[in-house]
Specification:
The complex is a heterodimer. Chain A is built from two helices and no strands. By secondary structure, chain A is an all-alpha fold. Chain B has two domains: about 1-60; about 75-525, Cytochrome c oxidase-like, subunit I domain (Cytochrome C Oxidase, Chain A, Up-down Bundle), CATH 1.20.210.10. In chain B, about 50% of the residues are buried. Classes of the chains: A mainly alpha, B mainly alpha. The interface of A and B includes residues 5, 24 and 57 of A.
């Protein structure tokens, strides 16, 4: 397979498209998966928790 | 500084500094007939000064084990001060080059006062000096708080902070004496580039090592943005700076790329520097300090994740919109344009997320200038990303490209978004970092806020007007089909706007100077008196040294 313009375009239009669509689907599914909600809600509170400003032991 | 180091770290520091002295001397000797030699002496001199400083402190008592129950904030404190100093230097250089555009005679026929040499001092000074130090300082602060873990050691954060500033000094001094590889925002030559890679890999290693020690299972989203910033900037920097030096004794190098491949690599770098240096890193700042200051969790944590993957996937492809109507293949230009338009979705998701977090707390935004800086940053982030997507469309770009509209767009982002979120975040941590009850003067924060806002608005409006007029004059034809205006006609039409722009920039740099003054005065305030603190803590495990 020669590394020329047509090859690069073909690669972008096939693999590139699948890559982005699949990654988007994975990302959206993971973010909106119902059982993940609790963890995200907990994580969101992290900056506002009033605690001692020191590392946990 | 060395008081925080263990004995092994002190030896390590001396070895690094000694090695740097040798490298500097080698550069000075190998490059004695070249400007490389100047940088050799600079590196050797600075390293030697630090080497002797380290030797003087070498026999200080070792730090106590109690330090491990505190976060390690000394590098953050130094980083805050460096941020503000570089901010004043970089913005003052910006004001000066803006004045040069209005009054070109101000170079006084001195080569190193010319626009071409001072302009990269402005751009590198604000992006790398101001922005980079702000990112290093805040990322180390956020990283520790969100992982509930102390930095793994004391030596590596200092190596990153000081090594990074050595890079900035070599870069800025190089521009003055004529060292540049003529790639925008990647001007420093090969030896400075190699040094930055070493510093940057250490920076990423600090992040990974601290995350590996984390006590909090979930990695808070701000860290994702900071890590994307560090990782992607490393990739961009290495690829775009692939070059072959003329010799090891010469500052000059030639890029591995040529022609349109060089242009594509450069703007893939250039646009992603905007995306990951000036956006992802500062979004990390926003996602931690804005909720913290408003005392409200982020409106939608899920949306922040979508935004994260959205910008990391899509920004990578957007760079080619800088090369519309060039020899770059048409489909690559269209690809860049399409991704730039789609980028509006994750960008506005972040801007909206920030503003919806503040929704219901507008009274805090009204009363608290620090939070107002952050709120305004989110608004400017929304404006700038909309404008950017719009300008990337080929037809719009045919009017805007090469005009001052681009400069206006960049400064809406740099002043309105990057600098505002930085000042807001720094003001919010300065009292705690320097163990003071409050800032020296809340009034001065107000003064700074209004200087910054009015400066930005004046600057951006001047450049919008100037850019659109410029673009229109360049494309106006008369009945015979020839151009109506010469380039000089358009230049004369720009003159009043250039004066207004310089004035807007002056207001902004005055604001930055106010921030520096306020910070110094805060540090000099008497220490906070806290009689009861320390009793309201969980009992320390009774562990004695040697037990």
């Amino acid at each position: 397979m020669p590394f020329d313009h047509d090859t690069v375009v073909g690669f972008s239009k096939s693999f590139g498209l699948i890559y982005l669509v699949v990654l988007s689907v994975i990302c959206l599914a993971w973010t909106y998966w119902p059982s993940n909600k609790k963890g995200f809600d907990e994580a969101a509170k992290m900056p506002v928790l009033e605690e001692d400003d020191r590392p946990w032991r | 500084m060395l008081a925080d180091f263990t004995r092994a770290e002190r030896v390590g520091a001396l070895l690094i500094l000694g090695g740097l002295v040798v490298v500097g001397l080698a550069m000075a000797i190998g490059g004695r007939g070249d400007i490389l030699g100047v940088h050799g002496w600079l590196v050797a001199g600075l390293s030697l000064a630090f080497f002797f400083g380290a030797i003087r402190q070498f026999d200080l008592p070792e730090p106590s084990a109690a330090r491990l129950s505190e976060y390690y904030d000394a590098p953050t404190r130094a980083g805050i001060i460096l941020t503000l100093i570089w901010g004043v230097i970089g913005m003052a250089a910006g004001f000066w080059v803006a004045a040069l555009l209005a009054w070109p005679d101000l170079t006084f026929d001195v080569a190193w006062l010319s626009f071409g040499r001072l302009r990269p001092i402005h751009t590198s000074g604000v992006i790398f000096g101001f922005g980079g130090n702000a990112l290093i300082a805040t990322s180390l602060h956020v990283l520790q708080r969100t992982t509930r873990a102390r930095l793994p050691d004391a030596l590596s954060p200092w190596f990153v902070l000081l090594g990074y500033n050595l890079f900035c000094i070599v870069a800025a001094s190089g521009y003055l004496i004529g060292v540049t590889q003529s790639k925008e925002y990647a001007e420093p030559e090969w030896y400075a580039d190699i040094w930055l890679v070493v510093v940057w890999v250490t920076y990423f290693a600090i992040y990974m090592r601290t995350l590996a020690r984390r006590k909090e299972p979930h990695i808070y989203v701000a860290n994702w943005y900071y890590m994307a910033f560090i990782l992607v900037v490393a990739i961009l920097h290495i690829v775009n700076n692939l070059a072959v030096p003329v010799s090891l004794g010469s500052a000059k190098s030639f890029s591995l790329f040529a022609g349109v491949q060089d242009a594509m690599t450069q703007w893939w770098y250039g646009h992603n520097a905007v995306a990951f240096f000036l956006t992802a890193g500062f979004l990390g700042m926003m996602y931690y300090y804005l909720p913290k200051r408003a005392n409200r969790p982020i409106f939608s944590y899920r949306m922040s994740i979508i935004s994260f993957w959205g910008i990391t996937f899509m920004y990578m492809w957007a760079g080619s919109h800088h090369l519309h109507y060039t020899a770059l293949p048409h489909w690559v230009q269209t690809l860049g344009m399409a991704f730039s338009v789609v980028l509006l979705v994750p960008s506005w998701a972040s801007a909206g997320n920030a503003l919806l977090t503040l929704n219901g707390a507008w009274h805090k935004v009204r009363d608290d200038a620090v939070l107002r800086f952050m709120a305004l940053a989110a608004i400017f982030y929304g404006i700038t990303t909309f404008e950017g997507s719009f300008m990337a469309i080929r037809a719009v770009n045919s009017l805007s490209h090469y005009t001052d509209w681009t400069i206006g767009h960049v400064h809406a982002g740099a002043l309105g978004w990057v600098a505002m979120i930085t000042f807001g975040s720094l003001y919010s941590i300065i009292p705690g970092m320097f163990k003071k009850e409050r800032l020296y003067s809340q009034k001065l924060v107000e003064v700074h806020f209004w200087l910054a806002l009015s400066g930005t608005v004046i600057y951006v409006f001047a450049m919008w007007n100037s850019g659109v007029i410029q673009g229109l004059m360049w494309r106006t034809y008369d009945e015979s089909g020839t151009l109506t205006y010469s380039f000089l006609d358009s230049l004369e039409a720009m003159h009043p706007y250039y004066i207004v722009r310089a004035f807007g920039g002056l207001l902004f740099v005055l604001g930055a100077a106010t921030a520096l003054y306020n910070t110094i005065m805060t540090i000099r305030m008497p220490a906070e008196v806290e009689p009861d603190r320390g009793q309201d803590l969980p009992a320390e495990p009774a562990l004695q040294a040697g037990e």
